Structures are given as structure tokens and as C-alpha cells.
Amino acid sequence: MLRIESLRRDRFGPFDLALAPGEACAVTGPSGAGKSVLLRMIADLDPSEGRVSLDGIDRDAIAAPLWRRCVTYLAAEPGWWAETVAGHFSADAPQRLAGERAALRLPPEVFGWPVARLSTGERQRLALLRALAGGPRVLLLDEPTASLDPDSVRGAEAVIAARRAAGLIVVLVSHDPAQVARLTTRRLAVAGGRPA
Amino acid sequence: MTPALGPLTPGPLDLALGAGFVLLNAGLSAALGLGLARTMLVASCRLVAQLTLVGLVLRTVFGLGAPGPVVGVVAVMALAAAYEIGARQERPLRGPWRYALGGLVSAGATVVAVAVGLAALRPHPWWDPHALIPLAGIVLGSAMSGIAIGLNGFTGAVRRERAGIEARLALGATRDEALAPLVRSAIRAGLIPVLNQMAAAGLITLPGMMTGQILAGQDPQGAAASQILILFLLAGATGLGVTGAVLAASRRLTDARHRLRLDRLA
């Protein structure tokens, strides 16, 4: 259970939300409403006040890196730090993630590719795979399929749905009402930095 | 027959000859439209005023024969170094950290290096201004340039690589893991000048201090020996200073919850 209580920072919040394992909540609202800030606060990437806990364990009670391995944020424009794709994954990831890699319509050779050669869509799918590789309990997705073609969108949604069936909690920022309807059961509308 | 070893001190007329050389350059710059003539003349005048003043002050301090003024001069040099480091930053740290971080680290590294230098040279008394002031000055200068380059490179790289750093943090990396490659390359950049200086010493350049000593009539071999000691001190102090400054900056740009805090840059 992910529990968020009066989470806020300067002009954003307070937000309250409780999600059970396997639940998915969409965060909707106009650009600049504070959707990304909400996800970053949940992941503790931005300083914030209020309480966030996972299965009764307060985030302040555990080290921040451990919290983020459980509650993983995926940025809309994900960053890269190594030259090749493989440099962003653990050594056993290509084998362990083969199924999801294929569902995301990425070839097995993708791990050997240089990041500079990837298209925007390939980057977005690899970033999703990278976020899943750590086995998070909560995934905070910031427009995860914004630059994907329809087939890849279906692949990404299938991967997310399969993880949800295994208990993953998802908070999704999406501007696509159809995707929100397909992927999520709950809705949190945000406007002007607060719940609308 | 060997020429007598005696100090070759230039007089006012000799300095005027040197100044003519600068004027020639300023004229060239004006003729070619480089726009450097004014800067060059201002810099020359500053050089004359600063060094004359420093010569006067140092003569007074040397004459006083007390440790207090000598340490005071070194403290002023350290403050000037702190200011220069802060002033060189394209995107400095916010608030007093801009000057405090570089200042504290350069002063600390200088204290260590000067202590080593004094232990090697054993002047009497230990604060003999003939040893302490030039030692502290040359070590501070080198630590200052290294730290200014290292810090500027580090903050620039962190801003540029923000997305990559945050991606690592979001996946559960610690702040040290996420910043390690940037810390390493900033320290390397900060150490390049002093490494070049060591490798080129004697072959490509005669270091300034050695040149001065030889011109002042000292035996070249003795001048070489003290230059070797000085270069070791410079390398040690700059290494300590750059590493300390970049590590401190990496702490300042993150917080205890392993967040990237670019809001702490001006």
C-alpha cells in the first residue's frame, strides 16, 4: 500500500492518495499544473513536506536510494549517463528482461547500441525497461509513451499491465484520455499546483 | 674565467626599456584593431603599482621581525585567493559558499604544503618571512588556479548532465555514485596545469622562481633544488585542494536525501 498524506512544497499540494498493490492512478491536468512535481515529490527527488509511506514504512525511515529503488520515477525526458545502452543495465538484465524487451519491440542487439544512435522512441522504451529492471514496487510514469508509435504504445501498455497484475502500483501522468482509460482505475486531477 | 655571481637588479631606466616593449605591443594591438591596447596598458600600470606596493609592504614586514605581521600578510593573500576563486565561477554556489568553499580549501591545502616546506627548509625562526611569504604565495597561487578550474568545470558539468544524474538518482543510486564520473573528470581538469608545469619544468620553461633566483645571482644547481621542492609542494597542495574543493562542492550540490540541488547554484 502506497500512502500519501498532505504532500506539499511551496505552491504545490497538499496531495493525498492511497493506492493498493496493483492499483493504477492517472494524474491529469494542463501543462504546468504540477503533475511532474507531484511524481518527483513522491520519489523524494524534490524536497517536500508531508508523509509518504509504502506498506507502513515511512520514506524518512529508510535511506533515500533504497526508497527510490522501491518507488521509481521515470522522467518524461529520461537521462543517460553511459555511452552504450548496456552501461545503463546490470549484467544479467538482457537475459532477465528478454520478454519485456521483446514486448517493447526492441531487438536483442539493442544493449550493444550507443545511446547517441537511439531514436527518441527507442530511448523512451529503453528507459521504461531500465526502470522496470530494478523491480520497483511503485512506478511513477511521466508521459511514458509520448513519442511512441501505436504498436509500441500497445507493447508498453501490455508490459505495464503485466507488472500491475503482479502487484506493481502505478502513478501515470498522461495527456491521452484513451490511455488513461486503458491503464488506470483511479484519477487525480491537478490544476494550479493542487488537487482540482 | 667565470663571471662573478652577483645580483642583477634592474634600475628605473632598465624598467623603462621593458615598458617600451609593452608599449610596442600596445601599438601593434591598436594598429591591428585587436582592442587590447587599453587592457594591456591598464594591466601594465596595475603590475607596476601592485608589485611596487608589495615590495614596500614586504620590506616593512621583514624589518619588523615579529611573526604577527608575517602571518597577517599570508592571511591577506589567502583572502585574495578566496575572492579570485569565487570570481572565476561561471555559475557560482549561492551565498557565502561562493567564496568560503574555495577559500577554506585553498587555505587548508596551503597550510599543509607550507608546513611540509618549512619542515624541509628549516628556517630560523620558523616564521622567517624570507621563507614563509614566498612559499605561501606560490602554493596559494597554484592551489587557487587548480581549484578555480576544478570547481568551474564541476558545476558546469553537473548542470549539463542534470538529466543523467537525476536518472541515476531516481533508479536508486547514491549521490556519490551518481556524481562519481563528474567528480573524477573535474579533479583531472584542475590538476592539468600543475602537471604540465612539472613535466615542462626546465625543458620548455624555466620556472619563474628559478629564473628569479638565477638572475639574483644564485647558483643554478641550488636554484634547481629549491625549485624541485617547490614543484612538489605545488603538486601536493593543488592535488589536495582540487580534490577537497570538488568533493565539497559535490556535497553542497546534493543533500542528505541524495537529491540533486541545482537550486544551490546562483
SSE layout and pairing:
The complex is a heterodimer of chains A (196) and B (266).
Chain A: E1 2-9, E2 12-19, E3 24-28, H1 35-42, E4 49-54, E5 57-58, H2 64-70, E6 71-74, H3 93-96, H4 98-103, H5 120-133, E7 138-142, H6 150-165, E8 169-173, H7 177-183, E9 186-191, E10 194-195
Parallel strand pairs in A: 3-8, 3-9, 6-7, 7-8
Antiparallel strand pairs in A: 1-2, 1-4, 4-5, 9-10
Chain B: H1 12-32, H2 37-64, H3 67-87, H4 97-121, H5 129-160, H6 162-170, H7 175-200, H8 208-215, H9 220-252
Helix pairs in contact in B: 1-2, 3-4, 3-5, 4-5, 4-9, 5-7, 5-9, 6-7, 7-9, 8-9
What are its keywords?
heterodimer, A: 196 residues, alpha/beta, Rossmann fold, four-stranded antiparallel sheet, 10 strands, 32% helix, globular, B: 266 residues, mainly alpha, 2 domains
The CATH topology name of chain A reads Rossmann fold
Q: Could you give me the name of the CATH homologous superfamily of chain A?
A: P-loop containing nucleotide triphosphate hydrolases
Q: Biggest interface, and residues per chain?
A: A-B, 24 and 22 residues
Net shape of chain B: globular
Biggest sheet strand order of chain A reads: 6-7-8-3-9-10
What gross morphology of chain A would you assign? globular
Structural class of chain B: mainly alpha
**Total number of domains of chain A:** 1
Element order of chain B: H for helix, E for strand: HHHHHHHHH
**Intertermini distance of chain B:** 64 Å
Radius of gyration of chain B equals 22 Å
Could you give the distance between the termini of chain A?
23 Å
Q: Count helical runs of chain A.
A: 7
Q: Which percent range describes the beta-strand content of chain A?
A: 25-35%
How many DSSP-defined strands of chain B? 0
The H/E string of chain A reads EEEHEEHEHHHEHEHEE
How many discrete structural domains of chain B?
2
Reported for the largest beta sheet of chain B, the result is: none
- The pLDDT mean of chain B sits at 90
Specify the helix fraction band of chain A. Answer: 25-40%
Organism (chain A): Methylobacterium platani
Protein name (chain A): ABC transporter domain-containing protein
InterPro entries (chain A): AAA+_ATPase (IPR003593), ABC_transporter-like_ATP-bd (IPR003439), P-loop_NTPase (IPR027417)
Domain ABC transporter (chain A): 2-196
